[in-house]
Amino acid sequence: MQNRGGGALSLTAMNKCLDKLIKNSGLSESGITRISLIRIALVNSYRAGMRTTDLMIVTGFSAETISTILAMDVAQYSPIVYWFVKRKADKVKRLESLKIAVVSWFKKI
Predict the structure, then answer these.
(1) 78 close to 40: Cβ distance less than 8 angstroms
(2) Which end of the chain has fewer CB within 10 Å, C or N?
(3) HEC states along the chain?
(4) Residue 69: which residues within 8 A CB-CB, separation 6 or more?
(5) How far apart are CA 30 and CA 41, in angstroms?
(6) CA-based angle 85:89:95, to the nearest 5?
């Protein structure tokens, strides 16, 4: 995207905005970068059934770049995957402790 007047819609401005969102969300502390987010989005889109040509249109990457990213899919080592797995595990723990608290509360009644 490009806005010749103000530059607010330039690629650089969008990248800076995405970097700021990552930093403000706390994901950057886990080693997550804009590139890792783009990579995981591309991999998951491909796994969900998007064709390479669709990914080329959406991301602006060449077929070679997409093929390279897909070939280097090592999700188990990705910081973003770890962050979501940990988040899910924490949610399960919170729900379990809430269940225990509710059950004990009802036993007192």
Answers:
(1) yes
(2) C
(3) CCCCCCCCCCHHHHHHHHHHHHHHHCHHHHCCCHHHHHHHHHHHHHHCCCCHHHHHHHHCCCHHHHHHHHHCCCHHHCHHHHHHHHHHHHHHHHHHHHHHHHHHHHHHC
(4) 39, 42, 43, 61
(5) 17
(6) 145
Token pair for 92? 């399960």
For the whole prediction, is pTM greater than 0.90?
Answer: no
Tens-digit pLDDT profile for residues 32-72: 888 888 888 898 898 899 998 899 888 888 888 888 888 77
